[in-house]
Amino acid sequence: MSRLQFLAHVAENKCTGCKQCEFICPSGAIRMAEKRAKIDGDRCIDCQRCIDICKKENAISRAPRLSEVTRYVDHKNLDPEKVKTLCEKAGVLPDLPICGCSRTTGKETIAAILKGAKTPEDLCAMTGLRSGCGIYCMTKIFQAFEACGIDLEEPKDRRWIKLTISLDDLSEEKVVQIDKTFPQYHMGEDWRKLKNRAVTSVTKGSVHV
Amino acid sequence: MYRSAINPPGVMTSVYGPQPKERAINILDMVSVSIGDLFPDIAERIYEDGDDPSAIERATDQALSLVDMGMIKSGETVKLLSSEHGFAILGGQPYVTMLKAIKNNIQARAGCEDVLLMVGAYKGFREADEVISHFDLKRVFDGKVYGYGPYDKDIPIETEIGTIYGIKKLFNGDWFVHSYYDDPREMYYHRMIDRAFKSFIMSYVRFETRSVYHMNFGNRSANFLPRAIFNAPSIQERYSFSCFLRTSPAGILSIDADNDLSALNERITISHLKKYGKMMRLFNEIDECIALVDGSRWGFYLHAGGVILGVLMNVKTDPFDLSNHKALGGLKRNKKGELVPKLINPAIKAIVMNQAWPGINYLGLEDTPIVIVGEDHADMWKADHCNPQIAEVAQTATDLNQAMDMAYDIGMTDKVIVFDGSFGHVNCSPSMARLLMEKAPQVSREVDEELVPMWLEQRGIDPQAI
Whose CA is closest to B374, among B63, B20, B16, B9? Predict the structure, then answer.
């Protein structure tokens, strides 16, 4: 969940249409029109990355919104078992934030996809994911789409690359080999803990933990 | 009686931080405890803040004299890969001096003129420009200096556990030099397993790869990833040698260089377990304190006695003990019912931010009282979506004295530790100085006699052999 009081604003007289801001925007809020950047306020999550990257022209700044908006997707009207199952499949815990910055939980992430997010940009615009550092949640975003059966097509400009490699992907043979050569990583112990987990979540009352 | 507080390294002006203001030690009645007073056996160093950097240059020349550069030919391109935090260690001058000396050595010995410095950034698109300007690197490197960051164009790297993505512009020259530093910084992530390799999974790779390191492996097993990347054929065929700014809590310890990164890594591991192990365990003995943050760049990474605030925040467990499957503190529910990282080190009763950059998530801070000095500074934190909880809970003070009064009232302690970028000593209140001095002898014995042998054995190093 993100509370937003500001959004990006483009000074059209300064914008050269270089498209760098469009490339870096995590929520797909910037489109080029008549060789100028246009901000979609309904998608902007105030991450300020466009302001930062526009370092030659300084054409983008923060402007106050008319009123604060919250980016949050409610999961309560969805089947909790389905959300829980998809969280398990994605390798996230329903109540655990997949992002330390926006603190968007696993169940909110899944809910946003079930409610229409088709791309990481949609997901970020709906939940505020990547409004902070924008770095560490990426692989969980990809895993959530995969769990929901959406095969993401990587953008041609490589603004993101679908990388989901994890401990879970390693074969037992590989883990044994690494353990033998480099016991200090405790690879086998971590791997077995992951493989032997009974479930990734349990129900406490109405809440999946 | 303790020494007066010592001036910390200077503050760099930046768009990412507040306007530099008067340093805390010039306003408050603080003292200084030297690392030599705390632990006489780890006081060795070749450089501390304010020294003549020529000692670094000489040490680099000497270290590189033992390195094979025969693979580098005249007419080829060599890229010196630097990482962002080096430019903040003791104000950055030691790292810059080492980088310059590496370039000079390559040019003199290999006859290779095309030596490019690659300046790493955490995530900001202006970070590298600011560093280049602050240290006049364009002049120093004859214009051959370039910034890079996690969003730059990718290059696939085929590792033994699959394809990951690095930064193309780092690995498209004929050769690269791993021009790094060993400041342990986030001990709770790398666990002192292969510290020397870590930039191969952070600085040198794309943001998706960094995400995999933090999210998809265990706290110990994740540290296999940088080694896997380093060992990838496409990386090995361009790797020439490594040159490190070696640190200890006392300051710059030496310059160390080697073609064999594993050998260098083992030397760092042994040194760090012995030296930083003592400071880490000493921080563990702090029963109550106010952490005062006062420097440039991200406050989470500011040093006191060579150890960052992040370590004090997470020092409840022993990050060097590899029998702990994770060094970070787990999760709990907050008042709103959200699952959040557990309370940071409960000894921290309050945090006062005199000056620091926002922009990186401070895990677990939501229950810790925070006072921010200055409205303009507070506005930067409130605009920071990396830390929405700080905007929710932080109070603002007009000046540092008011902030400290508020923190004393909240924390009910007068023990203050200042994170201002210092190595060689800890700037702190007299009460904190007393506590540190009182606890140090016992910590020293425990580390030497019990912990270091265990830590070494856990890393496959025979304690008897060193």
Answer: B20
- Report all structural domains of chain B as residue ranges with CATH numbers, in order of start: 3-41+286-437 (no CATH), 54-274 (3.40.50.11440)
Question: In B, which residues are within 8 Å of A128 by CB distance?
Answer: 385
Distance CA A129, CA A143 (A): 14
Pick the CATH number of A2-71 from 3.40.50.150, 3.40.1800.10, 3.40.50.300, 3.30.70.20: 3.30.70.20
Q: Angle at CA B157, nearest 5°, toward A130 and A164? A: 40
Tens of pLDDT, residues B88-125? 999 999 999 999 999 999 999 999 999 999 999 999 99
B-chain residues near A135 (CB < 8 A): 123, 150, 207, 210-211
Are B230 and B197 spatial neighbours (Cβ–Cβ below 8 Å)?
A: yes
> Is-contact A20 A54, C-beta < 8 A?
yes
Contact across the interface for A135 and B193, Cβ inside 8 Å: no
CB contact under 8 A, B216 and A46: no
**Distance between CA atoms of residues B31 and B25, nearest Å:** 8
Give the residue on A whose Cα is nearest the Cα of B130.
Answer: A55
The reply to whether residue B210 touches residue A52, judged by beta carbons under 8 angstroms, is no
Domain A80-163 part of CATH 1.10.10.1100: yes
Distance CA B273, CA B447 (A): 9
Nearest CA in chain A to B152: A159
Distance CA B54, CA A97 (A): 48
Does the beta-carbon distance from B325 to A102 stay under 8 Å? no
Please give the residue of chain A at the shortest CA–CA distance from B166.
A161
Mutate to test the interface with B, among A129, A135, A171, A194 (most CBs of B within 10 A): A135
The answer to whether the CB atoms of B385 and A24 lie below 8 A apart is no
Give tens-digit pLDDT for B38-74. 999 999 999 999 999 999 999 999 999 999 999 999 9
Domain ranges for chain A:
2-71, 80-163
Chain B residues with CB under 8 Å of A166 CB are 212, 216-217
Q: Give the integer Cα–Cα distance in Å for A110 and A93.
A: 11
Confidence of residue A1 (pLDDT cuts 50, 70, 90): confident
| Angstrom distance (rounded) from CA B139 to CA B132 | 9
